[in-house]
Amino acid sequence: MTTQSFEKFTAFLHGKSLRATTVRESIVKAVMARKGHFNMDELVRDLRAQGVEASRATVYRVMPLLVKAGIVQPTVVSGKIHHYETAFGHKHHDHLICGECGKVVEFHFEAFEILQREVAAKHGFELTSHYHELIGVCPDCRARRRPRES
Amino acid sequence: MTTQSFEKFTAFLHGKSLRATTVRESIVKAVMARKGHFNMDELVRDLRAQGVEASRATVYRVMPLLVKAGIVQPTVVSGKIHHYETAFGHKHHDHLICGECGKVVEFHFEAFEILQREVAAKHGFELTSHYHELIGVCPDCRARRRPRES
DNA sequence: CTTCATGCAAAAGATTTGCAAGTTC
DNA sequence: GAACTTGCAAATCTTTTGCATGAAG
């Protein structure tokens, strides 16, 4: 998977007489290992965790190339990139987050996807991605909150 | 309307022994005069246009108060405030955003709310709020993209 | 007159860019 | 070896904060 992606990227780079460097390979790997949305900071953290010392400036310079190569897709709102996500390869899921302890539960519910496409279509939009997080209180925190409720 | 909002804000402020100042009144007015979504920069521009010389720092400090007072509602994406909108005068809605030109279409689809509660309940969560933004390409941008597609 | 608000300037965080040195082809 | 990349540091931009001064209650 990862290798395949880097090969795709290499082909893209060579087509533009750009170089397929080791740093770029590391970045592609880190990106492909990501699931769901991620931002610059999370990506850099991942790289650091893997011992890759790519400077932020480099990552900032490489991301647009990955976008042009069709490997990642950015969500751009008002001219700014809010987050990226890999353009293929993983199942999509949304998040249910506990606003008190921060616990995150991933879920996938096809009905949402269907309705989302329906809404987009109704307005003539071509849907490219979505941001869907449910915020609530998890069972543990609810128990903690009401220790002795009847 | 405007006056009414400032009174609401005044009540909120006094309840917390904070001051109802003229600068704050100007900010509430500017906010209420806004229709739809706006960001910090647009708001400050509006203030400047009305001859109000509130410093950015002050506006940045006042907005959280307006949020707490229930006068404006922020849309938060990835932990950052993407935009604000006045909290009343319109029903709850989600957003369909054009990733290319930034156009925002509001929609309300009860089925989403029902399914969201269902998902939360399935995991034992008590749902408190949600972020739901659909990102896509609007009809205009699609046309612009493919000028002469069959 | 006490407490809070404001403006300014400095600080902090995020992203971009110029430049010299290191790599890729 | 030529052209492209990288890291660093400096430059921008956006948002936050400390502090002395000015206003509200």
In a few lines, what is going on in this structure?
2 copies of one chain form a homodimer. Chain A has 2 domains: 1-90, Orthogonal Bundle (Arc Repressor Mutant, subunit A); 91-150, Dna Ligase, domain 1 (2-Layer Sandwich), CATH 3.30.1490.190. The first copy, chain A, contains 6 helices and 5 strands, in the order ααααββββαβα.
Would you kindly provide a written description of the structure presented here, covering whatever features stand out?
The structure is a homodimer of 150-residue chains. Chain A is α+β, with helices and mostly antiparallel strands. In chain A, 46% of the residues lie in helices and 23% in strands. The first copy, chain A, folds into 2 domains: 90 residues, Winged helix-like DNA-binding domain superfamily/Winged helix DNA-binding domain (Arc Repressor Mutant, subunit A, Orthogonal Bundle); 60 residues, Ferric-uptake regulator, C-terminal dimerisarion domain (Dna Ligase, domain 1), CATH 3.30.1490. The first copy, chain A, has 6 helices and 5 strands, in the order ααααββββαβα. In chain A, strands 4-3-5 form a 3-stranded mixed sheet. Chain A has a two-stranded antiparallel sheet with strand order 1-2. In chain A, a hairpin with a 5-residue loop joins strand 3 and strand 4. In chain A, helix 1 packs across helix 2. Chain A starts with a helix and ends in a 5-residue tail after the last helix. Chain B binds a DNA duplex (25 and 25 nucleotides) through helix 2 and helix 4.
